[in-house]
Amino acid sequence: MNGSLRVAAVGDLHCKRSSAGSFQALFSRIAESADVLALCGDLTDRGQPDEARILAAELQAVKIPKIAVLGNHDFESDASDQVVEILASANVIVLDGSAIEIAGVGFVGVKGFAGGFGERALQAWGEGATKIFVREAVGTTGAVLLGGMTFVLLNSLLDRTLGDMASAGKNVIAFASGLVLASLLVPVKKRITDVLERIQYHDTYRARRALLDIARDFATPRPREEVVQAIVKRVLFDVGERKRLRVGYSVVVNRLVNRHVNR
User: Fold this and answer.
1) How many Å apart are CA 167 and CA 3, to the nearest integer?
2) How many CB atoms lie within 10 A of CB 131?
3) CA distance readout (Å), 114 to 15, 59, 133
4) Pick from 105, 27, 20: which is nearest to 64 by CA?
5) 67, exposed or middle or buried, with CB in 10 Å at 0-12, 13-18, 19+?
6) Which residues in the chain come in under a pLDDT of 70?
7) Residue 66 forms beta bridges with which residues?
8) Which listed residue, 41, 74, 122, 183, has the most CB atoms within 10 A of its CB?
9) What one-character DSSP code corresponds to residue 15?
């Protein structure tokens, strides 16, 4: 290579299920003119294994060394391990806090992460921790803003209604109304975060909540029979044919709990 190493870097491919054949021309040119291909995050659009398989198929024709890092989009479907495994089948080395040497040149890579300000501010996209953080932040901010606006409007109304009352009396009423509004902040915040969670997870929302509830039932110390009944109740909540499946679910859950208790 005459002492040089030609690196072709490309990111934000956002490969979708409909992207088959879209990257062949690009990858062909890269294979002819570069010695290494660096894939710089957001390789898939929603982090789905099917998207990774399409990208892996597109990359099969690229015979030069291929290295990559994942971006936040590649974590969206909680299947990043599968994405890495599928890309590895196309000889793509995914770096995450790791390094590799190619022709005497070292490459170090870490996964991408959301951040920034304004239109590029942190978004509820990618890793689960990011989604939780953004959801909680937005929920808290929304609850505080709603509470503050309500408090201002309420004070204005009190001034008009209790115009002749002494200022001390107004202050007491305003303080009491503030306490009431403050007590509502937590349930309002929870409601906002629940709505955001429904929007983020769409049709998998109920399944995620059910799994979380079951995990909580297992974590709470209680007699085995109560744990079984609680889990069966939650499982049957989403089952249409409840009577027919009740016995089967009870047997399965009993076996799971027995294993859990006997460990």
Assistant:
1) 83
2) 19
3) 19, 26, 12
4) 27
5) buried
6) 1-2, 112-121, 163-168, 170, 182, 200, 202, 205, 207-208, 210-220, 234-263
7) 37, 92
8) 74
9) B
Residue type, 17: R
Give the length of the chain: 263
Under 8 Å between Cβ of 66 and 91: yes
- Residue 42 resides in a domain: yes
**Confidence (pTM):** 0.55
Domain range enclosing 169: 122-201
* Relative orientation angle of helices 242-262 and 224-237, to the nearest 10 degrees: 140
Find, among 93, 99, 91, 96, the residue nearest to 63 by Cα. 91
Query: What pLDDT digit, counting tens, does each position of 41-60 carry?
Result: 999 999 999 999 999 999 98
pLDDT in tens, 201-230: 767 767 667 666 666 666 667 787 777 777
Are residues 195 and 228 located together in one domain of the fold?
no
**Bridge partners, 38 (sequence order):** 9, 67
End residue of a domain, out of 86, 109, 132: 109
Q: Are residues 138 and 196 in the same domain?
A: yes
Residues 100 and 14 in one domain: yes
